[in-house]
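This entry is retained here.
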Amino acid sequence: MLLFIKKQWDNVFSTSFRLKKRNLNSPFAVSEHFLTTTENNTPYLAPKKSMTTTHVEMANESHVRYAEAVCRMIEEAAKIRGTGIAKRDPEYIKMKIVEGKAVIALKGEALAGFCYIETWQHGNYVAHSGLIVNPEFRGEGLAKRIKAKAFELSKVKFPNAKVFGLTTSLPVMKINSELGYKPVTFSELTQDETFWKGCQSCVNYDVLTRTERKHCLCTGMLYDPAQDKNSPAVDTEQPKKWKHSMKVYQRWMRYKQFVLTKLEDRKEKRIVKKQEKLDKKAQKIEEKLGKKLGKIQEQKTKLKPQKGKPKND
């Protein structure tokens, strides 16, 4: 029994040593742990993140150092999900932080999440972009808190603006619906060309261009304050309950992806079939013309006088 306990403690200390060798300079690296035991007095190395609270606040100049970490998190999330997320530039993220148009979530010194707001058409439209949660802290409801804080910030800075978003994430759709967003067509969103140019780095941009900016894998959602003037303030408003099944949205997203991504393949197949039909028609016409030319040639040879044959007197 004593030998078993000694081995357990040796494993814990070796794990602790490996964690200390990690690169702790990374703003979103979480490697702080504390030593504890289970109910059976078995040693256990627990993460310190469970001991600290996560603070969600408006970003300021002191948070500029997290810009590159935010861009890396967004890029890695896009690779894991395999869906379209436009790439962000660290300098652009820094600008949003300095302007006071960003929300950041921190757990101690570790970056837990981030989001920023953008304005279009002279402040008539506001969008929340770059919503990301550190994988180390997922499952704690952080995305909902960050989104709510960004929504509150938007209403304070731009009280009359329409708040909209494009997303392929089902959890984000749920959060947006609880905040009062409604699914809309792309024609009801901002028509600012600068906004749509931001989609060029998305892997699904060809779908958007093929459909003439009418459809894409993203779902457009809009909050119109004009329809919500009589509602109470954000901090006193009771959150709306999610009335829809997540499975319905999952089926809808799968169907949407199937239709839009296969659209080009179906067009190519139709073009190939049409080309084959035209080739067959051309071949038939050539055969008919060949036969007619053959008959004409035979008639010409019959009409020509044969050489060496005496003429009749």
